[in-house]
C-alpha cells in the first residue's frame, strides 16, 4: 500500500507545478456556479414564487453549489485520457511487468489529484459563492455525516465508471469520444443540471435507479434532508452495490485487456 500512497502523493505534488493554473480553474468554477445559480433564480422569478413543488429557491441555490463541489473535484476525462495516452504510447504494457495493479494505480493517482483540486479549487469556490449567495446548512447532523459518506461513494463510483469507459479503449484502440459519452450521461442522469424531483415521470423513476444518480443527486438530496433515514440507508446500500458491480467490471476488463496486450505483444 505504501507504493500506492506514493503514487497519490506524487500526483498531488505534480499538480502544484502548475500554480498559475489554479486561478484560471477557480475562475472557471466560479463562472459555472454563477451560471447554474442564475438559471434557477431566473426560473423561480419567471414562476413568480420562492417555492416550487416543495423546493425553495434557497434549496436550489444550495443544490447548485453542492453539485459543483461534488463534481468539481473529480475529472472523468482525465482518467479516461490517462488510459488512452498509456495505450497510445505503449506504456500500458510496462504494467504487466510490475507487481502492482494498474487499476489501483489509477485510483491512487486520482486520489492525489482529488485532494489537490479539493483544497485549491472546490473549497475556495464553494466558500466564496456561499458567502455571496448564502448556503443552507445540512438538514441535520445525521444528514451531514451521511453526505460525507455519499460524497466518498460518489467519488468511488465516478472513478470506476471512468476507468470502465477508459478500458474500453483497448478494443477501440482510442479513447476519443469515450469521455464525451460519459460526460453526456452524467450531465443528464446525475442530477447535476436538474434534480430528479423536477423530472417528468417515468423518466424520474428511471433516473433515480441509474448509477449516475449516486454521483450528484443522492449526496445533495441527503444534505438537504430530502430523504428519510430509512431511504438514506437504503440508497447508500444500493450505491455500494453499484460500486461493487463496477469494480467487478473494471477488474474483468483489465484482465481481458492484459491478455490482449500479451497476445499482441507476443
Automatic annotation (TrEMBL):
Record's keyword annotation contains Transmembrane helix:
yes
Which ranges does the record mark as transmembrane? Answer: 114-136, 148-173, 180-199, 232-254
Pfam families given in the database record = ABC2_membrane_6
Provide the alphabetized UniProt keywords.
Membrane, Transmembrane, Transmembrane helix
Signal peptide segment:
none
InterPro entries linked to this entry: ABC-2_transporter-like (IPR010390)
Report which superkingdom the organism of origin falls in: Bacteria
Q: Would you tell me the protein name for this molecule?
A: ABC-2 family transporter protein
